[in-house]
Amino acid sequence: MSDKAPLTKNTNFIRNQINNDLESKLHNSVHTRFPPEPNGYLHIGHAKSICLNFGTAKDYDGRCNLRFDDTNPAKENIEYVHSIKEDIQWLGFDWNGEAKFSSSYFDIFYKCAEELIIKGLAYVCFLSADEAREYRGTLKQPGKNSPDRDTSIEQNKALFKKMKEGEFKEGECVLRAKIDMSSSFMCMRDPTLYRIRFETHHQTNDDWCIYPMYDFAHCISDAIEGVTHSLCTLEFQDNRRIYDWLLEHLDEFNKIDRPHQYEFSRLNLEYATTSKRKLKLLVDSNHVSGWNDPRMPTISGLRRRGYTPESIRDFSERVGVSKVNSLTDISILESSIRDDLNATAPRSMAVINPIKLVIENYPNDEIESLQAPIHPQNEEMGTREIFFSREIYIDKEDFVEVPPNNKYKRLAINKEVRLRNSYVIKATRVDTDDAGNVKTVYCTYDPDSLGKNPADGRKVRGVIHFVELSRAIIAEFRIYDRLFLDPNPAKFDDLSTSINPNSLEIKNGFVEPNLSNAKAEKAYQFEREGYFCKDSESEGLVFNKTVGLRDTWNQ
Ligand code: ATP
Ligand code: MG
Q: Whose CA is nearest to atom 8 of ligand 1?
């Protein structure tokens, strides 16, 4: 990516807002943040948010912070902190300064809570969870004031201090903002600001037993860091009222250039889930091999599958930013990677369902070295050495004894095809096993057809791929299908209802010898088969299928 603003990029309502704010001099520069909770690995939805936050900052020569929103120690874990950093960097972005943690502002949050208490704007509430729910009212009915709403400021100060000192049990009380129990926005009905949790935190250990709620911590963290545009997903639209209310009632942060929140629609991808909770369930219940299973819509899963950072950034650009929730067609993601790899992936030949083929008019003890282009449209990528001899492997799918019709272009008895990068062959007979399955195909070859059409003007329409038998290297191929059967698995409470039992198919076949030193995650186009990359977690030659050569979902 270039360092300077490609301002020809798709515009969107966030860029329009930023342009206005810069023009009116409300802000001199743009400062965004990406605020993951370290409670799981990042997924493709996060990638959209990363591209938006880091990408926008970059385009405007601004800054983007990485801030771990670590206010819920029960679900968080340092492993996730590491994976999140790695995934962001792999996507090609870097954060402003050190990575930040909401937990490093715990002292400030505490002081802000005290300020609200002193202003008569927060109180300690002893309603049980059930009572609080009942008091909150409904969309049609206003809520009722908590009996603790009028506790004196002095008492609230003392009670909050006792909360902090661990003198109350978990769930016994919470700190709430005193806003409006009859607000038409449920979230403004005296929202909880702090709750008690006796949990060890991965950053602050046992220093605290009270933890701030997201709504309280988020706006203050943004303000502390000087964020200008706080971008989040649409489900926080109503919560924007709390965001504004809190910053407007805290002296230090109630400034004209304080941060503002803007909401965009979440990315929901067909045949996938973008809920960390549900992804964790898939991992914990062994439906997949881990967070980076190549079927997972996580960034690490897509990476292991063979997706490139460029393709994911391109996908984010293609889906754009809007305020309309929708289900994104998986073919958009797949065409992003296909377009990238079509231009860059070296070509190679792999036989996934091997069957032996013997060329009876080829000398017994000869092996021929041939040159094949690494990329047919890009000569600069050079050539690779392949081999040819009397015995080769072809794919079972490329042979039938009797062609089904005149249009059949692959190999059949008495029919000619070209072997890719090599000679024209004609099948003559087969060997079968006891069950009648073809074991070996016998052929003749035309020695005068290497790199040219047969001399007598015979037309050979079909081309099939092959690997020379004695030099072929055994490889495993992992062919993936969608992880879910339903395009919108989110509609099932129990995700396992929609799991595709055949989402992974393992095949054993052969690749060209020069793939013996293939690098993990580097993509190849196996001609006529699709894009594959070597698996990063396996010993030996195991190839993950990234995507087919063309869109087959909709056929
Ligand atoms: P959870 O799934 O645990 O409820 P979350 O999806 O909100 O959490 P966070 O770690 O809080 O995950 O998300 C970090 C940022 O990524 C937030 O700003 C959030 O809005 C954004 N984000 C999360 N999921 C998506 C998505 N599907 N599409 C776009 N942005 C997303
Ligand atoms: Mg969240």
A: 276
Return the CATH number of 350-465, one of 3.40.50.720, 3.30.70.660, 2.40.240.10, 2.60.40.200: 2.40.240.10
Q: What backbone phi and psi angles, to 5 degrees, belong to 70?
A: -105, 70
Per-residue model confidence as pLDDT tens digits over 104-117: 999 999 999 999 99
The answer to whether 550 is a known catalytic residue is: no
Pick the CATH number of 13-264 from 3.40.50.620, 3.10.129.10, 3.40.50.2300, 3.40.640.10: 3.40.50.620
Write down the pTM of the prediction. 0.94
Which residue minimizes the CA distance to atom 10 of ligand 1? 36
Choice from 14, 37, 85, 215 to test ligand 1 binding pocket (greatest atom count within 8 A of CB): 37
**CB-based contact 348:376 (threshold 8 Å):** no
Pocket test for ligand 1, best of 41, 49, 230, 324 (most atoms within 8 A of CB): 49
Per-residue pLDDT tens digits for 165-191? 999 999 999 999 999 999 999 999 999
**Catalytically annotated residue among 15, 37, 115, 391:** 37
Q: Is 206 exposed, middle or buried (0-12, 13-18, 19+ CB in 10 A)?
A: exposed
Query: The domain 276-346+475-547 belongs to what CATH superfamily?
Result: Glutamyl-trna Synthetase; Domain 2 (1.10.1160.10)
Dihedral sign for Cα atoms in the order 338, 343, 346, 352: positive
In the residue annotation, 169 being an active-site residue is answered as no
Dump pLDDT digits (tens) for 465-523.
999 999 999 999 999 999 999 999 988 888 889 999 999 999 999 999 999 999 999 99
